[in-house]
Amino acid sequence: MIKVSVIGATGYAGAELLRLLHGHPEVEVVHITSESSAGKPISELYPHLKGIYDQELISMRAEGNMEMIGRDSDFVFIGLPHGHAMEVGKALENMPVRIIDLGADYRFDDTSIYEEWYKVPHTHKDAPRVYGLAELYRDQVKDAKIIGNAGCYTTASILALAPLAKHRLIDVNTIVIDAKSGVSGAGRGAKTANHFPELYDSFKAYGVATHRHTPEIEQALSDLSGDDIVLNFTPHLVPMSRGILSTCYAKLKDGISAELVDAAFANMYGKEYFVRLLGRNGYPATKNVRGSNFCEIGWHVDPRTHRVIVLSAIDNLVKGAAGQAIQNMNIAAGLDERTGLDIVPMYP
Amino acid sequence: MIKVSVIGATGYAGAELLRLLHGHPEVEVVHITSESSAGKPISELYPHLKGIYDQELISMRAEGNMEMIGRDSDFVFIGLPHGHAMEVGKALENMPVRIIDLGADYRFDDTSIYEEWYKVPHTHKDAPRVYGLAELYRDQVKDAKIIGNAGCYTTASILALAPLAKHRLIDVNTIVIDAKSGVSGAGRGAKTANHFPELYDSFKAYGVATHRHTPEIEQALSDLSGDDIVLNFTPHLVPMSRGILSTCYAKLKDGISAELVDAAFANMYGKEYFVRLLGRNGYPATKNVRGSNFCEIGWHVDPRTHRVIVLSAIDNLVKGAAGQAIQNMNIAAGLDERTGLDIVPMYP
Amino acid sequence: MIKVSVIGATGYAGAELLRLLHGHPEVEVVHITSESSAGKPISELYPHLKGIYDQELISMRAEGNMEMIGRDSDFVFIGLPHGHAMEVGKALENMPVRIIDLGADYRFDDTSIYEEWYKVPHTHKDAPRVYGLAELYRDQVKDAKIIGNAGCYTTASILALAPLAKHRLIDVNTIVIDAKSGVSGAGRGAKTANHFPELYDSFKAYGVATHRHTPEIEQALSDLSGDDIVLNFTPHLVPMSRGILSTCYAKLKDGISAELVDAAFANMYGKEYFVRLLGRNGYPATKNVRGSNFCEIGWHVDPRTHRVIVLSAIDNLVKGAAGQAIQNMNIAAGLDERTGLDIVPMYP
Amino acid sequence: MIKVSVIGATGYAGAELLRLLHGHPEVEVVHITSESSAGKPISELYPHLKGIYDQELISMRAEGNMEMIGRDSDFVFIGLPHGHAMEVGKALENMPVRIIDLGADYRFDDTSIYEEWYKVPHTHKDAPRVYGLAELYRDQVKDAKIIGNAGCYTTASILALAPLAKHRLIDVNTIVIDAKSGVSGAGRGAKTANHFPELYDSFKAYGVATHRHTPEIEQALSDLSGDDIVLNFTPHLVPMSRGILSTCYAKLKDGISAELVDAAFANMYGKEYFVRLLGRNGYPATKNVRGSNFCEIGWHVDPRTHRVIVLSAIDNLVKGAAGQAIQNMNIAAGLDERTGLDIVPMYP
Q: Which pLDDT tens digit goes with each residue over C166-198?
């Protein structure tokens, strides 16, 4: 059995990790932590876990706990706000435990980009880390000490555009990503803006031209294409709990046909279990992947404008967070990537 | 491996059966049927199943198919509208296959009650059948040929009131059940009443004093208490997809204390895995059990009116349909009841 | 023009008052107050009011403000939490201004009941007040100094049962009220329990046997029937923004026919503009009255149990708060009751 | 009083017209029609109208009815599916009545574009018509015989981009419009795709590169800019009832500053009552305009990509249909444009 701990277990991603790990046949959860709720059973905060995980939350900062976590665990998942995972990463650096951070601290090759967008100093610049988007960085993930698990919007957006970037089919100056997320993406912290009556029967954008997932998408697509990509990314809030749909636009280069686009997707994802290709003219829906680790992708070529429009849908808490983290763990542990993630989406 | 077929697989309960059976380690799905969509892969109707169940639907009425289903299957689940399961039950009566009907045809001991409420003749009155509410009829389910799987509202309502009825703590003439269901309970057939904009941001009752789950609840509670119970049952439509909450009222008999009520619940459900007791003053929520086979129960005793108010929550498609059917199958097949049903609810 | 002020204008009921008053041809809003947001324009807190009410909020506690409000206003609406309206009531007691409190402070004849359920001392016991449920207390409202505007659940529940109580058709010991409300009823204050993802696709009860609207319903029904009524009232939270549906149960007295029930409703509400009788077997829906001051009522008589089941629907922020307050103001000001309230519900 | 009739009154736009016309002080509704429900009172189909509009629907095709409608009405609103308004337009061509069509039949200057996208022949090519987007075509609307009321997505999208097109600030080859609508935009006809449980907690796109509002947006923006604009328009379905948010992208021409963008919006809409400018970096939300005729607009300039991103929000049934139709009627009748439309949005 693989022994895992979850640091910062009381956010939605932490709770989702526990849901998915319960169904993982090779995993045992050893420690779960929370600073604000240490001493309470997790099921007091999340009644849906009652009888399944009644385990007590501990403080990672209490005397000896971090060392105990490091010693007892093969993998540590971190569900802390950005800026805090580096503390854990450094504390566990010299222990054999491997780390999967669900936040942004270890996602950037160039930490100055992190510092610019996240407005905090990066204090672990030489960390031995890889970017954890399994379909694209599988080989690096295998032996990584620290995995910077890809973000939710970014996973949907990168997977949508990766084949086009890699095969250089698009004019990279024309990329526009219009993304929409359920409210769980904003976390569990109560605030007026996310109070039920404020959002119900409403729709709006936020973070236009400033959202922190922008440079993460740019990094991965630049990496694939060899270009230095700068793009627009616009997030929106959908009055629903879960799910992300990303609508991605780019001009095809001259002479690129719809068939070449089809081939790029088939080539890149034909053998990927978690990427469900709906083909040209396909329409992903967040409900089709809800609760699962799938990413659905469909694409459209507009002969009038010579633009390609790619649609991708994921569950933000699964493929966009906890599921992807487990997929990365499976790879890193040498297991079949699907172990514990062979889940049918919940419909309706 | 247990071989199962699903007759009438294209309703929500049928699709949910496929979702849950996929996670069942001892089951193989052999045939799935639909009269209106025969010849199509089920994933064309339910895109969330793409890549998981792309199996073709067959017609149960096509030459030789019913016999083939009977021959190839250890268990047949029936997801047909009421009145149609009897046809299947009779056709398979003399084959070794066992039958679990998710509809109402085999739920009543007294078929005249069925005929009165369902307005169709019962054509299989001597069917060797048992009522399939596992927590109450486990012993009968073990060896049953035909299991009339309990309904959704009825499961929530009966489990809520069973300890009080069995221990004779309440005045059975005072029972009022006010139940609320998500819209998936109404099936997948499109009609104006269930068109999205008609129900969103709205709440209403339906079927007051006439809903067909009434006599089913009365049958089970009468059976437990020895009285001839007549009660009020009122269903309501909640603008959400899944979940039932049942709010049940009854006057406690003179001298019955809150502690006796507590003891009745503990006594009846203390060892039941799928019944989650939240205790006196507990508040079940449908979200806490969503996607799982759990039934959450909390109860309240009002000293001012000497009424007990019991609250119960289930997922109507799981404990109220497909999950309970699999639980019954597990019992009938001699498996651990939880096999394939050890699912963490999906939250949020 | 009638001059009105709104004290505590930043809750949902305050904002709804401003929406409705804008459409009132005889009203001018002079002052609006908030302690936490004094100095800000109300449209900064409620962007939907931008360009309509950009008026600045003032503090009622700032030197001279309360006196100014009293002097400048014909009517003052109070939208403060319970316990705080008494302060205003006393401060304005000797000025000619009339007061309509949307909270509970002035709803009870017997202030000891208020103190018992609300857990605060009543400091204005001799206030010249009337209970503001217009259809039942119209004559008293006409000349009242202080009107204790009826609560949301209570308005729906009392209007549903009033004809039966008044005509003494029911056994008053058998009353059960099962009520359901949209989340705006819980106010605008952010807390985890009402965070969007926590409530979406979920349903639950709260305040069983302890909700503060219970004694208010009992007071009005006792008043009508002459009996000392004690009943059960159970509120539930519906994942929607607005609307209350109340499902009310009682045993009919021996010999009371469905026709007598019909007559009681016709007799009491036949001429009431804001009470929409849907008749026997009618089904109110909250969407049918959304945004309007209507109360829809339908009733059902169950011959099996001899119970009557009455359903009523209102918009909790209109007939359950701001609309009713304006209706009371109209009566008190000698205007046609419908002035400014002749609003078509918003559907869908 | 202006006498109006509504042809095709049973769709959502028809019902919304009746809601808004009820609050219009200068209007009397004389006839309402429906072919499928002729003979029924409209309140039977729309219970929220009970007691307000209990008027009987008539058939426009019954002997003499069309002539009667034409004779009795100053204005006729048409709420028929595309292809059917032309029949009405021709029948009433020589009567003094004026026509406002809420569908697409009279929206295009070049009827060949209509025929290409709508796949029906245009049978009234020489109709004396104007495009009914009041803020842009006010002068033409004044004396028009037939007004082709602008569509819902198009109103939001055109108003968002009009200042940029008119002042030629953007590269018109780079326009991408990503729009999102509540489900009422799809009409009231029941179908599985819009069945409540199918859409709840889900999000998806549809009609990519093929939606019929595309050429309508292109026509208006080309008209304003003098260029021949071809653009991408992508609609999405939001799990809510009402509201459209349009997110519009374009590259600013070299040297165009954010201040010039600000000035373009101020210049064009500074005096428009129904256009609410939220300014640079503003965030419209559909809830802020729900139930009202407002269009909220905010814009953002991204220095990294030199793109402008414009956000606009409307209520699809008001500014996107019935409200705009009444605004057009007011203009055509010489009334203050706001008459009957001075409505505070319903929040929350």
A: 999 999 999 999 999 999 999 999 999 999 999
- Round to whole Å and give the CA distance between B246 and B315: 12
Q: What are A187-212's pLDDT values in tens digits?
A: 999 999 999 999 999 999 999 999 99
**D183 shares contact with chain B (CB less than 8 Å):** yes
Mean pLDDT by 10 residues, chain C (348 residues): 98 98 98 98 98 97 98 98 97 97 98 98 97 98 98 98 98 98 97 98 98 98 98 98 98 98 98 98 98 98 98 98 98 98 98
Instruction: Tell if the CB–CB gap between D201 and B241 is shorter than 8 Å.
Output: yes
Longest CA pairwise span in chain C (Å): 65
Question: What are D193's two structure tokens?
Answer: 């795709």
| Six-digit token string for D301 | 């300039």
Is the ipTM value over 0.95, yes or no?
yes
The mean per-residue pLDDT over the stretch A236-261 comes to: 98
The span from the CA of B348 to the CA of A182, in Å, is: 11
* Nearest chain A Cα distance for residue D44, angstroms: 26
Secondary structure (H, E, C), chain C: CEEEEEECCCCHHHHHHHHHHHCCCCEEEEEEECCCCCCCEHHHHCHHHCCCCCCECECCCCCCHHHHHHHHCCEEEECCCCCCHHHHHHHCCCCCCEEEECCCCCCCCCHHHHHHHHCCCCCCCCCCEEEECHHHHHHHHHCCCEEEECCHHHHHHHHHHHHHHHCCCECHHHCEEEEEECHHHHCCCCCHHHEHHHHCCCCEECCCCCCCHHHHHHHHHHHHHCCCCCCEEEEEECCCCCCEEEEEEEEECCCCCHHHHHHHHHHHHCCCCCEEEEEECCCCEHHHHCCCCCEEEEEEEECCCCEEEEEEEECCCHHHHHHHHHHHHHHHHCCCCCCCCCCCCCCC
- Here the tokens at position B196 are 């999205």
Q: Quick one: closest CA in C to D43, which residue?
A: C288
DSSP 8-class letter at D345 = P
Based on the residue annotation, tell me whether B295 is a catalytic residue of this protein.
Answer: no
For residue B210, how far is the Cα from the chain centroid?
19
**The residue to which tokens 């082709």 are assigned:** D148
Q: Which residue of C has its CA nearest to A47?
A: C198
The pLDDT of residue B12 is 98
Question: Regarding beta strands B129-132 and B146-149, do their DSSP bridges make them parallel or antiparallel, or are they unpaired?
Answer: parallel
Which of B205, B239, B302 faces C311 most closely, judged by CB atoms?
B205
Chain B contact set for A285 (CB, 8 A)? 47
Percent of chain D beyond pLDDT 90? 100
Give all domains of chain A, ordered by start, each with its CATH number: 2-127 (3.40.50.720), 153-316 (3.30.360.10)
DSSP secondary structure string for all residues of D163-221: HHHHTT-B-GGG-EEEEEE-GGGG-S---GGGBHHHHTT--EE-STTT-THHHHHHHHH
Q: Which residue does chain D place closest to C293, by CA atoms?
A: D48
Residues of C with catalytic function: 152
